[in-house]
Amino acid sequence: DPLRTQLASSYACALVTASSHLVRKDDSAIFGPSSWDDIEILLSQSIAQTENAISGRRLAQGLQMAACGSKLLSLMLRSELQGNDLSSTSFTFDVTLMKFMPTVKVLKCEGLRNVLKAVVRHATSCLVRHSKWILDHDLNELSPIERASAECCASEAKTCLDSLGSVVCYTAWLFCSEEGVAIDHSSSAIIIRDEFLSELARSIENLPEMSNKKKTTFTKKVKLHFLLSLVEEFAFPLQDSVGKMIGLEDVLDCV
After folding, report:
1. Exposed site from 9, 98, 152, 180, fewest CB < 10 Å?
2. How far is CA 202 from the centre of its chain?
């Protein structure tokens, strides 16, 4: 039920927003993931919730679930890091501080390098799987009923991608903080580039066969939309570095 899904999402987001002000008796946050499995479920929903759904209401509902999950994860990271100056990567993973940052704590325990790779893979697979809705899609050819469903699919797919891109930004920031380097350092950009290109190549193999010309055009569009999903202002230097590494230096001035 889309209305119940939206209500549950709004309630969860309200809990996340409040968790920075309300704490348990042990001073820990009242809301957050308890394990990496919790986070991976939120990351993977754009694929898991849309299996065997090509279009229509079922796909729209699956994408809504995925968008709510990825948006929640992005909000958890934003809320937990809101007291920090994100223009700098100066951050201490203090044990006491981690009690107020359950999401950051789980990512740190899982290994930030591995987490960054995983988040990039999920964002890329979401983008390729739902490229029909995220890239330029002509809705004028559809009937009014089909158009309403298609517009919903497009909106939710784009929301999901942007939220996953936001999670990439926060994870890269945490990784750079751990490494003691600035956000524009090549270390995080190289990880993102390698995982993105690897997952892109793998995901394209699962798409209907394309001519070389169409594949080249499609690949460039996917690269651009991935780059644009790195939406957080503090990560613009990272966006610039990644763009140059994936061959979009000619369009960076227009981004």
Report:
1. 180
2. 19
